Amino acid sequence: MRITPTLAAVPLLLLLLTWLLVRGINPEAETFDRALGTLDDALRIENALRRDILASRAGLLRNYDPLVRDSAGLRDLMGRLDEVAALDPRIAASVGDLSALMVRQDELIEDFKSKNALLQNSLAYFGVLGSRLGATDGDGALAADVGALAAAMLRLTLDTSPTIARDVQDRLEALGGRPPPPGDTAPLRALLAHGRLLHDLLPATDGVLKTLFALPTGREQAAIRGIVLDHQMASREEARKFRILLYGVSVALLGLLIHAGLQLRAGALSLRRRAAFEHLIAGISARLITARRPRVGAQIERALADLASHVGADRAYVLFGGPARRLHVWSRAGAACPPGWPDRAAALSAGFDRTLDGLIHVRHVARLPAGPARDALAAAGLDGWACVASRGSDGATDIMGFDALPPSRMIGPDQLSLLRTAFDAIANAVGRDQLEHERSRLEERLQQARRMETVGALASGIAHNFNNIVGAILGYTEMAEAEIGPDGRAGRHLRGIRGAGERARDLIGQILAYGRRRAAPRRPVEVQALVAEAASLLRASLPPGVELVLEQEDGAAMVAGEAAQIQQVVLNLCNNAAQAMDGAGRVGIEVERHDVVQAQGLSHGSLAPGRYVRIAVSDAGRGIDAETLSRIFEPFFTMRQDGNGLGLATVREIVQEHGGAIDVWSRPGQGSRFAAWLPCIIEAEPPEAPVVPSMLGHGEAVLLIDGDRKLLLRDEEMLAALGYEPIGFTSGTDALAACRASPDRFDVLIISHGSSAQEALDLAAALHEAAPGLPILLALPSSERIDADALAVAGVFGVVRRPLSSTNVAAVLGNARSRNRELADTSA
Fold it and tell me: Please, what is the average pLDDT of the chain?
């Protein structure tokens, strides 16, 4: 509601008043006063510190406690300046510089204390030793030199200039170069040692003092003081302004309270309008729910009219994309949609930011940034635009839009948010309508299927009886031909009758073959020999202008099935190819073996991983258009006048019964290609090639699971001969327990166990969970089919044919060893 921002502003204004009151009191003034007092204390302590340092240098202060106390006081005062340093980066920088100077001052004081202590000690010893040597000198010469040295040293104590230091150095050298006095020479040596020490120490100590007193601490303190004083004056001036501002805000708050009262009244009106909108949407939802299928479209258009009237729009529309495209439009008189609108609205909505409900609201199109979106809306003549967009399950964009022509009278976004509910109600109604339409269509198809089933049963019964009648006709015709002879008009008529009877018999045979369940036993069939035999039959029956070219791979490809049915597939495909070329052209037959690694989809069916033989028949005839291509395998559908529509239907049924699939490619004017994929059986594999040394194992442990103990022993012997260490189990539970107990014991897992492929797959998944890093090989019969995704989830590395052959197992185990080495290198 509009009242919400106003009510939220009241506590914000109260906070503002409190802040202005605090700022008017000038709380920072006390901080600045404390900072100035701290600077005064720092100046006083620093002066006392320098006084104590000079007293110590002069020997008047023997105790360094005042220096330590003054230094600690200065450090404490520097900590107090952190409060004011946070107010201004310049103060913080000056305080940082002053702190660094204080650290340097502490270092120099410590250096001074060390040197000064040694200096005062040496001066004391130097005086004592000089007095002792002067009292013990008999002739007075030594006493004179010592006295001169003491006088020079006293001058050096007061002035450490280089000239006086050289004088002391010369006297030390003169005293050290004279002959030692008779008797004890230790005092003279000690005097010279202390003299030399003082010669070096006095200038060094005074140098420390000069460096110490030269530190610009006073300048930094003055800089801080100046900035603090500026801030203090500014804060006082700012406090005065805040007091004036406080008065103004108080007056504004009074006006705000008056405005809030007006907003409350407006909010109540908005609530009533929103309630009316919700009531309207509820009525629309009720009408759509109760509407019967023929009336759904009219109810949607009525709902659009009601919604447009409420939101202040001149046009309203709802568009559902996807294959089942649906569009409903309402517009007031004289406000019809321009060409191409609202079809462009769905794509246009993708360029706008949406709310969480998918709402897009453009109050004034002219205020949009320049670009294609604004141009498209302006081209549709819009001043305001609102829509609800949603992406359907098929990926298409569904949209419900409202157009406002100039001048826009569209309501605000607070009520427009309810449009999502209206859009969902309309979308649900359309969905129910589509489901009802789909249900009706499925019922019609079911009824058609039932009728076809009835017709098929009737046709099968009629075909059996009609077959007997046609057989009699052919028998009497043959007897009549034998009596009349081939020549003459009657003979020609009889041959025509016999030809028509034979065609009727073939048609009846195809009808019976299509409807009959093929339960004949499956036997291994060599495809190459079968196709070669079919090709020889075709060459004798195809038109003279049709050339048949057969291309086959070397080696045998065996499938399990009925030879007659597979040959019928080849014959039907080749006859259709010859008829598609109008009796002239080239028909190609290709027989190839293929290993399908992962699940593969074809135009009519799909292939699971395994080995297949592909029989492809191609022609350069008329080709097939897309509409016809979708129906070529329907029973009784044909494009030829003399066709019966059962040839390709029979081909598809035979291929599916053999576990295969069909792939069709065709283009009008470019010819066609029909490929039948049939699964190979293990006998179809060529003679095993000898196992080369590189395929042999090196003692890797192979966990082998097979429920048949005889096959398990055979496979164990084969693995041992290949250089592996087989560990066999007849129970999947025992193998799983062993793998869980010590997963590092095995290198490869081979599962040739289970009454079904799903049971073997479940066992593989459990073993993969127990030992995720081990490769798993699944041994399946050629007829088993498992989805590639299911193999990946179960952790299956590869699939081999069951029963196992040494060549295949050696090759697959070699790949597993390579994979283990790659994983080990990656982890390293």
Answer: 78
End-to-end CA distance of the chain: 64
> What does residue 101 show for φ and ψ, rounded to 5 degrees?
-65, -40
User: Which residues on neighbouring strands pair with residue 614, listed in sequence order?
Assistant: 592, 677
Confidence category of residue 827, pLDDT binned at 50, 70, 90: low
Two tokens, residue 15: 């906070």
CA dihedral of residues 497, 499, 505, 507 (deg, nearest 10): -120
659: left (phi over 0), alpha (psi -120 to 50) or beta: left
C-alpha to C-alpha distance for 192 and 196, rounded to whole angstroms? 6
Identity of the residue numbered 575: N
DSSP assignment string, 463-497: HHHHHHHHHHHHHHHHHHHHHH-SSSHHHHHHHHH
Q: Beta 701-705 vs 610-619: how paired, if at all?
A: unpaired
* pLDDT band, residue 688 (cuts 50/70/90): very low
Cβ-based neighbour number of residue 28 at 10 Å? 18
Rounded Cα–Cα distance for residues 7 and 2 (Å): 9
Q: What angle do CA 70, 76, 80 make, to 5 degrees?
A: 140
Pairing of strands 671-679, 701-705: unpaired
pLDDT tens column, 368-426: 888 888 888 888 888 888 888 887 666 678 888 888 888 777 777 667 777 888 888 88
- Model pLDDT, residue 697: 77
- CB atoms inside a 10 Å sphere around CB 413: 13
**Predicted local distance difference test score (pLDDT) of residue 684:** 38
Q: How far apart are CA 701 and CA 744, in angstroms?
A: 10
459: region left, alpha or beta (phi > 0 left; psi from -120 to 50 alpha): alpha
Burial-class residue 336 by CB neighbours within 10 Å (0-12, 13-18, 19+).
exposed
The pLDDT tens digits of the residues spanning 606-622 come to 888 888 999 999 988 88
pLDDT tens, residue by residue, 689-742: 455 565 677 888 888 888 888 788 888 888 887 888 888 888 888 888 888 888
Distance CA 772, CA 244 (A): 77
d(CA 405, CA 670): 54
Tokens of 804: 């196992």
Sheet containing 671-679, strands listed edge to edge, beginning at the edge strand earlier in sequence: 546-552, 585-596, 610-619, 671-679, 661-667
Residue environment code for 414-449, b if the CB has 16+ CB neighbours within 10 A, otherwise e: ebbbbbbbbbbbbbebbeebeeeeeeeeeeeeeeee
Find out whether the peptide bond into 187 is cis, omega within 30 degrees of 0. no
Radius of gyration of the chain (CA): 54
Q: How buried is 395 (Cβ within 10 angstroms: 0-12 exposed, 13-18 middle, 19+ buried)?
A: exposed
Q: Which whole number is the average pLDDT over 801-813?
A: 73
Amino acid, single-letter form, for residue 151: A
E runs forming strands in 502-597: 523-526, 546-552, 558-561, 585-596
Burial of 60 (0-12, 13-18, 19+ CB in 10 A): exposed
Percent of the chain whose pLDDT exceeds 90: 2
Give 802's Cβ-side CA count (13 Å radius): 25
**Does residue 106 register a pLDDT over 80?**
yes
